[in-house]
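Posting this for the archive.
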Amino acid sequence: MKTFRLFWIIVFALTFCSAAQAAALNGKVVFEGAAPAPEKLKTDADPTCKMIHPDGLMSDSVIVNANGTLKNVFVYVKEGLPAGQKYEAPKDSVKFDQHGCQYSPKVFGIQVGQPLEILNSDDTLHNVHSLAKNSKQFNLGMPIKGMKLKKSFEKPEVMVKLKCEVHPWMGAYAGVLDHPFYAVTGDDGSFSIKNLPAGTYVVEAWHEKYGTQTANITVADTDQEASFTFKAA
């Protein structure tokens, strides 16, 4: 009986210590300088897209938020995780939509083997062409509104470009990792990588136009702060 009780005390202690040594890495991606003027894109070639956007679309390769931060930056742990550590892919799908003749989300993260659910929400033909280098590429025509398909990636890759062969202005990027420690900046430029074990890491921030930046970050048992700054060309 004492042995059984001691076993569970040890299990509880190890679990508690493991949880106590995990923390969140929080921060923002700041943009310095004058935001580039967005390019106006014509949608005349597709009557459905033209109807949705009669004045055309504005390019979304650079989106500077109202608070001077940068949207659609992929932030992830590049180096430092324990060698040989395996992280099970989530069963839940990452949703990737074609809505309003645009991809949504523009930038997203996904784990190796995690399902990618691709949806066409528009009443027109769309196409999703993966230009992956480390995984098998796919090129899917989706002519029916409400149509859904599922795919996945076999190996890590930062980043995988996705494009539409029908609408050349449509482009998106997937950060494919073998671990869950990543985030994408939103409308306030912030990111949060949760449950990161204690350790020292190389953390990278990737942006479609401005490239990458890295920082060495040490995480202990309390939440840490980090920031990245991209400058106008």
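The first helix runs from residue 2 to 20. Residues 6-20 have pLDDT under 50 and may be disordered.
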